[in-house]
Amino acid sequence: MRSTFALLDDCQYRLKAAAALLSVSENTLRTYVKDSGIEIKRATADNPNSPAVRIFTLDNIFQLAAWRRKQGLIKPLSATPICIAVELIKGGTGKSTTTAEIGIQLQLSGYRVLMIDLDVQANLTQLMGYESDLEDGEAATNDLNSDAIVHGTFAEVVKPYLENSRPGANKMDDISHYIKWPFGADGPALIPSDTFLGDLEHAIVATRDTRELVFRSFFRASTEGKIPGLNVKDFDFVLFDCPPSISFVASNAIAVSDYIIAPVKMDSFGVKGVSRLVGEINYIQSKSGQQPELIILPTHYSSNVSRVARMSQKLQTYKDNLPDMSISSSELFPKSQEYYMPLTLQQPTSAPVKEYRKFTDFLLQKIGAKEYAAAKEAAAKEAAAARSVAA
Ligand SMILES: Nc1ncnc2c1ncn2[C@@H]1O[C@H](COP(=O)(O)OP(=O)(O)O)[C@@H](O)[C@H]1O
Ligand SMILES: [Mg+2]
């Protein structure tokens, strides 16, 4: 029995695809295999007549990514996780797709990623292999075990915390069983969504604390070890896939995030969604002091549509937030949903996956530079303080 809808056993990669997944040259990958001692089977194991090429399974790929991290070949970026909200107040712009693709790619780079589905439509949950409506009785008929069922969402994770902060509350239960590991322990983690996620909005509205800052206090409590079963410090990145509507859930994601990625659909008409988002970020900043950096990612790009040219021009208002890259319009994305797996894992050498990889690299470089500058500033301050003590 499988634990998700995805046919993970069918995912087999030859050297070139495996190297693309891990963003290294084929030679470097050969060295990784040798040094790590991770056993990679040969095609001849299944079919004696085939060439003796190495066949990497999905497990092998995530094992190699994790090994790379343990070897210190990947430097942790910061002591607490970098939070990224993928957000735009408009549906169908590529938010869930972007969360899934960069989530997988960051994990493949060697970082530990937690993705949180904040949309009741549960598209991210589906891209990670789960049907949010699947119930216990139906699982077995689909050849699935109980791991394939969504037993709880971020609502079940946060609500006990909110209830626990009331006086006289009981001890919190461990929430680790709500966290999914769709590709095994070396892969990314997911807090999935289903229709009951809607309860989270109600719980936030009912709180007596500042409504926009619930996630922030929850994350602080988590890093202090006060949430049994979830310490967000175990992750390098937390990615939020946000709903297309204005809600406290979406505002909370902004208030806890270091970066906001806004996927903008290029074959559409307006940039109103972006200006609305900028307004929302400014409002949250006035409430929380948090100043997330906005990054616009053009999606559904096509060079020969006049609407795209017009949109490109309109986006120039936000040129400081607009990296020189975009994701092409590609039928491969809607198709990838049928297989319950992000395109990165299905077609690692395809053109749109390369575009997402370029964007992920850009993101890592940007974050690295910012963290480095922050660390340098902190060190300078410390040195100045030490000097003043000495004097
Ligand atoms: N670059 C793209 N080109 C073509 N189709 C895309 C692209 N990105 C996403 N899609 C498709 O568009 C639809 C909406 O994407 P999705 O990521 O779910 O948007 P959102 O989360 O913003 O509602 C999906 O069917 C998805 O497969
Ligand atoms: Mg979505």
Automatic annotation (TrEMBL):
Residues passing through the membrane, by range: none
Family matches, as InterPro entries: AAA_dom (IPR025669), DNA_Partitioning_ATPase (IPR050678), P-loop_NTPase (IPR027417)
Species annotation: Noviherbaspirillum pedocola
Domain spans labelled AAA: 84-288
Top-level taxonomic group: Bacteria
Name of the featured protein: ParA family protein
Entries under SUPFAM superfamilies matching the protein: P-loop containing nucleoside triphosphate hydrolases
